Amino acid sequence: MDHNQLGIQYMQEGKYDEAAKAFSAAIEENPKEALGYVNFGNLLAAVEENEKALKFFERAVEMDGQAATAHYGAGNVHFKLEQLNEAKQHFEQALQKGLNSPDVYFMLGLSLVYTNELRLALPYLQRAVELNEEDVEARFQYGLCLAQLEMLDEAIEQFMQVIEREEHADAYYNLGVAYAFKENQDKALEMFRKAVEVQPDHLLAGNGIRLLTEQ
Question: What domains sit in the chain, N to C, each tagged with a CATH number?
Answer without folding.
Answer: 1-99 (1.25.40.10), 100-150 (no CATH), 167-215 (no CATH)
